[in-house]
Amino acid sequence: MQKYSVFSLVKNAFTNHQDWEVAWKDPEPKKEYDVIIIGGGGHGLATAYYLAKEHGITNVAILEKGWIGGGNVGRNTTILRSNYMFDSNANFYEFGMKLWETLSQELNYNVMYSPRGIINLAHSDAQMNAYARRGNSMRLNGIDAILLSRDEIKQMIPFADFSETCRFPIHGGLMQPRGGTARHDAVAWGYARQADSMGVDIIQNCEVTGFDVNNGKIEGVQTSRGSIKTKKVGLCVAGSTTLLADMLNMRLPIEAHVLQACVSEPVKPLLHQVVTFGAGHFYCSQSDKGEMVMGGDLDGYNSYAQRGNMPMIQHVLTGGLAVFPNFSRLKMLRTWGGIMDMSMDGSPIIDKTHIDGVYLNCGWCYGGFKATPSSGWVFAHTIAQDKVHELNSDFNLERFHTGKIIDEKGVGPKPWIG
Amino acid sequence: MLEIKCPYCGKRSQNEFSYGGDATVKRPTLGEEISTEDWDNFVYFRDNPRGKHTELWHHVSGCRQWFKASRDTATHEIFDTCKMNEALNE
User: Fold this and answer.
1) Crossing angle for the helix pair A184-197 and A372-385, to the nearest 10 degrees
2) Does any CB of chain A come closer than 8 Å to the CB of residue B37?
3) Which of B24, B39, B50 to mutate to test the interface with A (most CBs of A within 10 A)?
4) A255 touching B, CB under 8 A?
5) Which among A125, A113, A118, A115 is positioned nearest to A84, based on CA atoms?
6) Residues of B in contact with A242 (CB under 8 A)
7) Within 10 Å of residue A59's Cβ, how many Cβ atoms?
């Protein structure tokens, strides 16, 4: 594989950039693979990469219905953080944060990792107490957290509404300085390129239409490009999880919902952190191109349509203008939507299933992007060793029967309210 | 913008309504022998279809009545709505 560096850039400049190797090949599916990963998104590509790198399993295919990186990894708002209170979440996402820190070097691909800090705004004494508690929990788990006063926040985002009469005056906030952003497409492409170089077949335009299960054991998958034999299948299909699970007679604690995001026209550097305004259902960061990247809540009804509806965009931006009144003169560039696999407790499921050789990775709700490296890493372990890793042992399917749910937000099994 | 026909008030904009989730979920009957699995299925597990979905809506900024709707989760087309004690046109 061609190594990307400043020297290769200069060298290729002399040939008008016509002679770059392809980043990944376009192979025909083989008759049989050791492992098949369904879903060529961030998690699927990362899983294949770690299967090859950590476990030496390279006879792997990634089957993608459309094109790689065209689903949620290309539709998110690129936020990285590990500011969770519960141990299961904190340990898992913090493991991921450490992978993010060296990911560009590891993949030889600039994922534009930017630990610019994430600030959650608080608007009451009670919320400050809750944030102090969460910050302390984070620090006990070795995660960085700082409780910010109103004045400290005013220094960082002086253009926010700090008037005394606004509906939600800013009392302070909780900051994770190591939180930040990364370039979402580069993450998918970087993992794809490395996985491909180690022998993984990335097969696009290949839809899975059925599974061959015999005596409770997986033997192969049926696809739009023929049947392929395998001993192990990993499902990494986010919003489409139920559609595949139905083919396996698996009923899941998952609902599909559409989540929208939007960006403004590019402007000069203004917002240097990620800021969340939970009281107004709004969060924002500024991309390296200068666009304000904004998001908020689910549209609020079950949906498999990768597009949303205007009322929620209006609702989110109304909240946004309450905290950043100077955004009112920004022009909107575009809006889009993606399908979230909302689990009933708000936490993911990374587990084995009742079928031998079928592994499940789903339930990411609106937090899948930051988990891309850690999800791929633990899922590769789960598939290769046929047992869950300590880091994903709590993210099991059984918890919806035992009651040991991980409800960080505590909203109950109604995803559209969360 | 969805236009939802409230069975009491007629067609109104989506802004007047809030969502109530899957209407096919049935609470296990009290007083009867109920397995924990029945409870788990009621609380956590959903069919989550791509296509026709029977669901609850609440005309919260209108007559405040709950009602049922049949809607396509892929196209957002609403086929029918009815009062809680009526049956949807399938």
Assistant:
1) 30
2) yes
3) B50
4) yes
5) A118
6) 47-50
7) 15
**Chain B contact for A310 (CB, 8 A cutoff):** yes
Q: What CATH number is associated with residue B6?
A: 3.30.2270.10
User: Amino acid identity, residue A310?
Assistant: M
**Do residues A163 and A277 touch, judged by C-beta distance below 8 A?**
no
- According to DSSP, the residues that pair with A121 across neighbouring strands are A173
* Six token digits for residue A23: 């980043």
Contact B22 A344 (CB under 8 A): no
* Number of domains present in the structure of chain B: 1
Query: Which whole-number Å values give the CA distances from B22 to A175, A301, B34, in the listed order?
Result: 37, 9, 21
- pLDDT tens track for A84-112: 999 999 999 999 999 999 999 999 999 99
d(CA A93, CA A84): 8
CA distance A266 to B70: 41
Domain assignment present for B31 = no
- pLDDT tens, chain B, 90 aa long: 899 999 999 999 999 999 999 999 999 988 888 898 999 999 999 999 999 999 999 999 999 999 999 999 999 999 999 999 999 987
| Model confidence at A301: pLDDT above 70 | yes
CA distance B48 to A168: 36
**Distance from the A252 Cα atom to the nearest Cα atom in chain B, whole angstroms:** 6
B8 at A interface, C-beta within 8 A: no
Amino acid at A151: D
Is B35 an interface residue toward A (CB < 8 Å)? no
Longest dimension (CA), chain B: 44
Q: Does the residue B28 lie in any domain?
A: no
| Residue of A59, A354, A384, A52 whose CA lies nearest to A211 | A354
Tell me how far the alpha carbon of residue A323 is from its chain's centroid: 26
Cα separation, B51 vs B72, in Å, equals 5
B55/A310 touch (CB, cutoff 8 Å), yes or no: no
Q: How far is B21 from chain A (nearest CA, A)?
A: 7
In a domain, B3, yes or no: yes
Q: What is the ipTM of this complex?
A: 0.96
The model carries a pTM of: 0.96
Q: Give a yes or no: residue B58 inside a domain.
A: yes
Domain containing residue B59: 1-19+48-84
Question: Any CB–CB contact under 8 A between B14 and chain A?
Answer: yes
Distances in Å between the Cα of A384 and the Cα atoms of A233, A301, A377 are 11, 37, 11
Check CB contact under 8 Å for A302 and B22: yes
Search chain B and give the residue with CA nearest A414.
B21
